[in-house]
Design a protein that fits this description.
It is built from three helices and two strands, in the order αααββ. By secondary structure, it is mainly alpha-helical. It has a domain of 39 residues. It has a two-stranded antiparallel ribbon with strand order 1-2.
């Protein structure tokens, strides 16, 4: 397959319209990408084992413990003003 055919197919698959003036630039970029892929293929990987994680460390997680929290009391404790079970806020709506 020629570079032009590959470029036309990629443009069609990605739903892009590429003008004739842009085709040379994209063809050059595509050739560079293919060269990089070939270069990566030259790397010797036979003696390397695949990595699942980049480091040997593992996550340290806490135990999942179910607790009963009084969320309302915690939220009201952070409020500047409260009235029993409610937040006190300045009046913003006037009655007619």
């Amino acid at each position: 397959m020629t570079d032009e055919k590959i470029l036309d197919k990629l443009a069609d698959l990605s739903r892009l319209s590429i003008g004739e003036s842009e085709k040379e630039k994209f063809a050059s970029d595509l050739a560079g990408i293919f060269k990089m892929i070939e270069k990566i293929g030259e790397v010797e990987t036979e003696r390397s084992s695949p990595l699942i994680h980049l480091s040997e460390t593992e996550n340290v997680l806490r135990d999942d413990v179910c607790e009963q929290l009084n969320i309302r009391a915690i939220a009201l404790a952070n409020s500047p003003k409260s009235d029993g079970d409610y937040f006190k806020v300045p009046k913003v709506v006037e009655k007619n």
